[in-house]
Automatic annotation (TrEMBL):
GO CC annotation terms, alphabetical: cytosol
Record's keyword terms, sorted: DNA-binding, Transcription, Transcription regulation
Gene Ontology terms for molecular function: DNA binding; DNA-binding transcription factor activity
Listed name of the protein: cAMP-binding protein
Ranges of residues in domain HTH crp-type: 151-217
InterPro entries for this protein: cNMP-bd_dom_sf (IPR018490), Env_Response_Regulators (IPR050397), HTH_CRP (IPR012318), RmlC-like_jellyroll (IPR014710), WH-like_DNA-bd_sf (IPR036388), WH_DNA-bd_sf (IPR036390)
Keyword Ligase part of the UniProt annotation: no
Pfam families in the record: HTH_Crp_2
């Protein structure tokens, strides 16, 4: 594996005890994830699960007319491909790369073998970890639907910026207003106005294709409760996710 990259950059992989990790490590394939790359289409058969490290992936629901909006994001905190172990091999959503970077792919068959592995009378650590993550992802999807229906474009933009920041090592985002509008399913003019308000307030600085968050606390003061609900549920379900290298594990994650 490339020494510049490590599976431990993904929180779920880093939380696996040594024995579980060593079973799948030889099969984890480092892949580049360029901005805009489509990892799977709606209704397509899933061949791999993806564990992002530096990339951020976006799940979109696409209507019959071709319109789409984001229903959830997946970064280094999670995995793309939950339908593999939730009873189906396809999904009605499209997965595209929102922020370019890297991640690791694992063949669907190998993920299922580890997910279904039984140790003694108990299910394996991988199963417990993935199911807890799935519950957190369902919360994110549900809250996104509520937010899109009931909250202002500015509040939605603040939520999206904060969730994206949580997955990045810096306060710099490479993203055009047009792409953000597509993510949120709103008109570009709405994003332009909302971003303008946030820039005037001194919370962000925007220049062609780049957003710098100057005052995160300011964004948190403008965001709706949806961001807090998603973050709190993720922290509650995955609060004991730890790095195997820092905390050697012999039992559950």
């Amino acid at each position: 594996m490339d020494t510049a990259h490590s599976p431990n950059q993904n929180h779920l992989l880093a939380a696996l005890p040594t024995a579980e990790f060593e079973r799948i490590a030889p099969h984890l394939e480092l892949v580049a994830m360029p901005l805009g790359d489509v990892l799977y289409e709606s209704g397509g058969q899933l061949q791999h699960a993806y564990f992002p490290t530096t990339a951020i992936l976006s799940l979109h629901y696409v209507t019959e007319s071709g319109a789409s909006s984001e229903i959830a994001g997946v970064g280094n905190e999670g995995v793309l491909g939950i339908s593999l172990f939730m009873g189906g091999n396809t999904t009605p959503s499209r997965a595209i790369v929102q922020t370019g970077g890297h991640g690791y792919q694992l063949k669907a068959r190998l993920l299922m073998e580890e997910f279904n592995r039984i140790g003694g009378r108990r299910a394996g650590v991988m199963q417990h970890l993935l199911l807890r993550y799935t519950q957190a992802l369902i919360t994110q999807i549900s809250q996104t639907a509520v937010c899109n229906r009931h909250h202002s474009v500015e509040q939605q933009l603040c939520r999206w910026l904060l969730l994206t920041l949580d997955r990045l090592p810096s306060n710099e985002l490479t993203m055009t207003q047009e792409l953000i509008a597509g993510m949120l399913g709103v008109r570009r003019e709405g994003i332009t106005e909302a971003a303008g308000h946030l820039q005037q307030a001194g919370f962000i600085r925007y220049r062609r294709g780049h957003i710098t968050v100057i005052n995160r606390s300011g964004l948190e003061s403008r965001v709706c409760e949806c961001y807090g609900v998603v973050k709190k549920e993720h922290d509650r379900l995955l609060c004991d996710v730890r790095n195997r290298q820092e905390f050697p594990l012999t039992g559950h994650a």
